[in-house]
Amino acid sequence: MKVIHAADLHIDSPLRGLGRIEGAPVDDIRLATRRAFSRLVDTCLEDQAALLILAGDVFDGEWRDFNTGLFFVRELARLRDVGTRVVMVRGNHDAESVLARHIPLPEHVHTFPAEAAGTLELPALGLAVHGQSYGNRSVEDNLAEFYPDRRRDLVNIGVLHTNAIGSAEHSNYAPCTVQQLVRRGYDYWALGHVHKRIVLNADPWVVYPGNLQGRHAHETGPRGCTVLDIDNLKIRSVAHRDLDVLRWAEISLAAAAAADTDDLLGSLRLRLQQIVFEAGGRPVLARVLVDGATHLHARLAAHPEPFAAQARAIAADLGDVWIEQVRFRTRPPAETEHGELLALHQALRDELEALAADPQRLAEYGPTLAPLGALVAPFLGTRPDDPERLAARLPEVEALLLGLLAPDYPHPRPPAHVPAQDPPPPRASKHPEVQ
Fold first, then answer.
1. Which residue ranges are recorded for the region named Disordered (predicted)?
2. How far apart are CA 21 and CA 19, in angstroms?
3. pLDDT tens digits, the chain, 435 residues: what are they?
4. Backbone phi and psi for residue 70, each to the nearest 5 degrees, phi listed first
């Protein structure tokens, strides 16, 4: 008997960063969360699953379109026709939606209440499923401590939307520990809320399946569901199944060892080829980060567009691959930071670190930067007078400014009357613009 565990579907959640991806099939990509859920239902049908467990965040807050709910109901109806039962809890995003709480679901779907944890016994399947939904977005109580006792002579499965690992990437809702879950004596905990697949314990099983579909550049790699094989009241195997329809990747290029930009681009091509192979025919959306101390810093920081354009050309040559963004966090090699520049570099870094730690101080730069918005926005990817967005990009601001200060930054050509073969006239500073 197969039981399938999925969570964090976020159906119709907007995928971030699509506006920056020139030439990508944006309309198809926007349907990725729906298509991933359809693949989940297909998997249930193919495996003849007896039960589908949805561990919260089916939806993504308040719907923009009632068709989101209708789509969900239509897909669930496909399971009713073959006798697959569905149990679900509502997570923090589901609790935000008025429509999600009131849309009528098919009779083969059981939603656990929010008032207290309950139990659904399915003796014909040899299962007892325990769960509790969120009544509102912010649930700070430890719900796991109050789940029902295990049922004898049945396989016991707990369904909970929780931050059981103290992840800083996710709000600390329904916090608990793995030890508290294990103490309940259940055979399997079907968790949701953390979007990365994690097996927290194997005896008994405590599993986050991850979300069905990565939605931005920080949700990289395979995404999907977990399939349980149960026989004679024992869980015989627990396995991941890929269901994502497109894949996000984050590529970090170490600039320190690169002789030139061709070296960096060659490394990028190899990394993209590997990711395309691992994606198994899925389209790939990639974010590229060029990082490290390098003699190429001045060129990359002052003129990032040529490298980004060549990176996108490599991706286009490989097929259904698009570069979502190219970021630069390079710096000059330590040996170039000498003399009068050392103090200037350090002062700049100190100022940017202080701004990152003090949003109010950063906001004070807004009025000064506002007139430069149209000019500087291409470098920053956003308007410089938006403190919240600028704070996240301060490392790139540092790279850009240090590039302008670097000793090998291109300087104005000598006046036309100076013969090309003559040596340049002596100057008091290495930087003619600072006298």
1. 406-435
2. 6
3. 999 999 999 998 877 656 567 677 777 788 999 999 999 999 999 999 999 999 999 988 665 667 888 899 999 999 998 999 999 999 887 765 555 666 789 999 999 999 999 999 999 999 999 999 998 877 889 999 999 999 999 999 999 999 988 656 667 788 899 999 999 999 999 999 999 999 999 999 999 999 999 988 889 999 999 999 999 999 999 999 999 999 999 999 999 989 999 999 999 999 999 999 999 999 999 999 999 999 898 889 888 999 999 999 999 999 999 998 999 999 888 755 454 555 666 677 777 778 777 777 777 777 776 766 555 555 545 555 566 666 777 777 766 676 666 554 443 333 333 344 444 444 443 333 332
4. -65, -40
Q: Which two tokens stand for residue 38?
A: 């359809």
Among residues 233, 32, 51, the alpha carbon closest in space to that of 126 is found at 233
Q: List the one residue out of 237, 240, 231 whose CA is nearest residue 125.
A: 231
- In this structure, how many other beta carbons lie within 10 angstroms of the beta carbon of residue 380? 18
- Output the CA–CA distances (angstroms, integers) from residue 212 to 34, 41, 75, in the order listed: 10, 12, 15
Rounded distance between C-alpha atoms, residue 131 and residue 55, angstroms: 9
Report the predicted TM-score, pTM, of the whole model to 2 decimal places: 0.76
* Contact predicate 230/236, CB 8 Å: yes
Cβ atoms 130, 144 nearer than 8 A? no
Of 35, 29, 3, 25, the C-alpha closest to 16 is 29
Residue 249 bridge partners (DSSP): 286
